[in-house]
Specification:
- A four-stranded mixed β-sheet has the order 2-1-3-4, sandwiched between helices.
- It is an alpha+beta fold.
- It is built from six helices and four strands.
- Helix 4 runs parallel beside helix 6.
Amino acid sequence: MKTLSLRVEIPILSGLMKKITFLLSVASLLFIFCSFIVSHKEYTPTVSIKYFKGSFAEAVQESKNQNKPILLDAYTNWCYWCKRLDKTTFSNSKVVSLLNNNFIVLKMNMEEGEGPSIGLKYNVTGYPTMLFFNSNGEVINGIIGYTGSAEFITEANKVLTLYANK
């Protein structure tokens, strides 16, 4: 037995459906594009670290003046994990407070200025690298690679204990 199917197109509805499909497609693409733009806007933290403005030698002198250890945040412009560290760990209010109150914080691009020579002197081979120094410019401790807020706070507190017991 043969079945016969009959398809009837109504030209007005067919054209209307094509227009609706087209408009929904355009609206979907516009929504996706706008979502992408919003999700990739520049991040601005609500709290920020007070970075020392000056050379490493000047940071050592400031460390002596304020009796605080130094944190050297060694980064590069192309380093994904360095940017991630800035957006997460270094934007955490507890980390910011700990650093601003207890450390001379020096952020240094390891590919510009004195960065390459500091990198060679202290054997910085991966990024991000955070080196903690005493007031004589001697390394107390270091963290190589990305670290979360809780782990960073633990390491920074260890440095403060070592610095106090110098």
